[in-house]
Amino acid sequence: MGKTFVVIGDPIDHSLSPNIHSAVFRELNLDCSYIAYRIPKGELEDGIEGLKKIKVDGFNVTIPHKVEMMKYLDKIDESCSLIGAVNTVTYKDGILKGYNTDMDGFLEPFKKKKLNIVNTKVLLLGAGGAARAIVAGFAKEKANSITIANRTLENANNLSEFAKKIGLIANAIKIDDVSDSVKDYDIIVNATSIGLKNETSPISLEGINEKTIVYDIVYMPMNTDFIKKAKEKKAIVIFGYEMLLGQAARSFEIWHGMEAPYNAMKKALLGGF
Predict the structure, then answer these.
(1) What are 60's strand-pairing partners?
(2) Region of 142 on the Ramachandran plot (φ > 0 left; ψ -120 to 50 alpha; else beta)
(3) In the predicted model, is pLDDT for residue 273 greater than 70?
(4) pLDDT higher than threshold 80 for residue 240
(5) Which band of pLDDT confidence, cut at 50, 70 and 90, is reported for residue 234?
(6) CATH code assigned to 103-238
(7) pTM exceeds 0.90 for this model
(8) In angstroms, rounded to a whole number, what is the distance separating the alpha carbons of residues 198 and 119?
(9) CATH architecture for segment(s) 3-100+243-271
(10) Is the per-residue pLDDT at 272 higher than 70?
(11) SS in 3 state form for 88-124?
């Protein structure tokens, strides 16, 4: 019997997940399909009932359902409860179990490139969507400190409190106040959506060097202004698509109980650009 996997969200037509997973099913000759399914805000409960009726084996959850979906799960793994959001679900024997692959997906490129996080000073831009998972990842990998820079200080403060609770030295500032302190950090992450519409980098990268790790979680376009400025300074660059690949690989492992064919996923993803 073939298995069915779905990604739910709204909007959903831009999702790259169907390309990635379908390519892997072909590569491994798995009798599975993966489709995008639009569930508008406010219709999640009905949507999930529908997915149960067609007996899906698992699904990914994107905006705007990642937090609300928590209410409908029968079981959650610890990444999920720590981050307070879910993006990967298995449906087996009538049980919905939730996972969050944001943290592992975010950390994967560091592991692939053997980049050190232990004792580093981190600057995180943005306090929304994936930011909590990113903070959790840095805490897990024993970074030393994190500065959270955001447009609204309140959100940055909340995230900074969370960071302290899980073992990081943390503080919050407004994004405009980063200015020339940027050179003091080992790792700089853009977790805002700035760059999606080709906007100018949220901060100046004046003063960073070839040891600085610069990571943009925006994956379309691949070369955001933030990434271009990092490359001019010969910094170590991590692209948004690398996090996306890490997340997809982790979902695959959760659903199929085997290692994801990373290169096949990468080829499928980059073919979509």
Answers:
(1) 7, 88
(2) left
(3) no
(4) yes
(5) very high
(6) 3.40.50.720
(7) yes
(8) 33
(9) 3-Layer(aba) Sandwich (3.40)
(10) no
(11) EEEEECCEEEEECCHHHHHHHHHHHCCCCCCCCEEEE
pLDDT score for 14: 81
CA distance 189 to 18: 27
- Residues β-bridged to residue 35: 6
Length, in residues, of the chain: 273
Residue of 52, 66, 174, 211 marked catalytic: 66
Q: Could you check whether 3-100+243-271 and 103-238 share the same CATH topology?
A: yes
Q: Summarize pLDDT for 189-228 with one digit per residue, the tens.
A: 999 988 888 899 999 999 999 999 999 999 989 999 999 9
pLDDT tens digits, 157-170: 999 999 999 999 99
Task: Specify whether 66 is catalytic.
Answer: yes
Backbone angles phi, psi at 161, to 5 degrees: -65, -45
Domain residue ranges of the chain, discontinuous segments joined by +? 3-100+243-271, 103-238
Non-local (6+) Cβ contacts of 114 within 8 A are none
Q: In whole angstroms, what is the distance from residue 69 CA to residue 85 CA?
A: 8
Instruction: For residue range 95-139, list pLDDT tens digits in order.
Output: 999 999 999 999 999 999 999 999 999 999 999 878 999 999 999
Residue type, 234: K
Distance between CA 129 and CA 188 in Å, rounded?
17
